[in-house]
Amino acid sequence: MTTHEYSTYKFLNLHLCFDEMRPVYIGEREISKKDKAVLHDLGKQIAEISSLPIQQKRKEQWKRMNQLLTGKHMVNIDEVCWHEMDVNDELRLLTSDPFCQRIEAQLRQTLYQWNHMQADMIIEPVLYSPLAISNTGVGLFKEADILQTDIRNDIVSHHYKIQIKDEPDIEKLKTPEITHDESSRCDRSYGKMGAFITRRKMGQCRIDNR
Question: Is residue 96 situated within a structural domain?
Answer without folding.
Answer: yes
